[in-house]
Design goal:
By secondary structure, the chain is mainly alpha-helical. The chain has one domain. 78% of the residues lie in helices and 0% in strands. The protein contains 11 helices and no strands. Helix 1 crosses helix 11 and helix 2 packs antiparallel against helix 3. The longest helix is centred in the middle third of the chain and has 44 residues. The model has no long low-confidence stretch (mean pLDDT 90).
Length: 262
């Protein structure tokens, strides 16, 4: 792969896609690490507060004479706090992922990323990003509950929806359709790329959890910091894969040269 990132004029191979991802990340580490670090620490802190509170309250239930009433109160608090965690995770996750996707898009389009420009672009399109991400999360969750395979298929179909919203002037529903069209006939390759990236993230996060365990009360902070080193590769992959399939699309529409005049 060339040292200078240029917008692809054709579809990248799987090896080229992964090479672009790690090349873009290594050359622009800070602009991807910072948003993921801030988002990871925010979610890690909230999760730590919630789990600590719930653990404390659960241990007190058996001390009350009215066990049934206290258990129902605890259950209500648990559901409410779980809903809060999901809500904040959805918003923070969309913001950080959208910012990193746009950063990677700027690197591919212009040769360099700009965190401020990427954040401003993401902010203007945040309502559409949140709506699209919400739809995908719901569909994938329902699909995973329905024997897992449908959830994987849905995730593949809409893998590029945030990149479409950030780089094309399309609405939410149109962006979902556009993502599906881009990955059409590339289901297996898309699945393999996603699998490789997820396995890398899971492996690093597992190592981070083991390494952070001895830090006790601040283990969540150590784990969040270490995870922020690897989580940017997912949104970068989304951007690179989006431009790869755009390159394929453009190559297919290039008209053939005219026949010789004889």
């Amino acid at each position: 792969m060339p040292t200078v990132i240029q917008k692809p004029s054709r579809e990248l191979t799987m090896e080229e896609t992964l090479s672009w991802v790690f090349n873009i990340y290594s050359k622009n580490f800070v602009i991807f690490f910072v948003p993921m670090l801030l988002g990871g620490v925010t979610l890690g802190a909230l999760n730590n507060v919630v789990t600590t509170y719930l653990a404390s309250e659960r241990s007190k239930i058996f001390l009350y004479q009215d066990f049934g009433r206290e258990y129902l109160t605890f259950l209500g608090n648990f559901i409410g706090l779980l809903a809060l965690l999901i809500l904040v995770s959805w918003i923070v996750g969309t913001i950080t992922e959208g910012t990193c996707i746009k950063c990677a898009s700027l690197v591919i389009e212009k040769g360099e990323g700009d965190l401020t420009e990427a954040f401003q672009n993401m902010r203007h399109k945040l309502p559409s990003l949140l709506a699209a991400n919400f739809i995908v999360i719901i569909l994938v969750t329902v699909g995973l509950l329905a024997l897992i395979i449908p959830g994987i298929i849905i995730y593949i179909m809409y893998f590029l929806v945030l990149a479409v919203i950030l780089n094309e002037n399309r609405g939410v529903i149109d962006s979902l359709s556009r993502s599906k069209k881009l990955v059409d006939r590339k289901w297996l390759q898309t699945f393999v790329v996603i699998l490789i990236i997820f396995l890398a993230i899971i492996l690093v996060n597992s190592i981070a959890s083991i390494f952070a365990a001895p830090f006790g009360d601040i283990s969540w902070l150590v784990r969040s910091i270490l995870s922020a080193f690897v989580t940017p590769i997912l949104p970068i992959t989304v951007a690179v894969y989006y431009y790869s399939l755009i390159g394929r699309e453009q190559a297919q529409t290039v008209p053939l040269p005219p026949p010789p005049p004889f």
